Fold this sequence. Notes:
Layout: E1 22-28, H1 29-32, E2 42-48, E3 57-60, H2 61-72, H3 78-86
Antiparallel strand pairs: 1-2, 2-3
Amino acid sequence: xxxxxxxxxxxxxxxxxxxxxxxxxxxxxxxxxxxxxxxxxxxxxxxxxxxxxxxxxxxxxxxxxxxxxxxxxxxxxxxxxxxxxxxx
Length: 88
């Protein structure tokens, strides 16, 4: 996977603590070496700042948008997940 053209971003809320965060980049799938994933031209790459040499997770724009919608909608709030797990 060729990531030399990737422009990585991280949240401004992650601070300067030395790397406990993730970075995100958007690239054309063909440029990243991920040809036509699910028929979409662009992919979202996600990597751990502590392990930048590892291959990033790759998502389609549709997958990434669905994830962000879930975050905004509270689907991943820890209190909700604990409640669902324990039936509280």
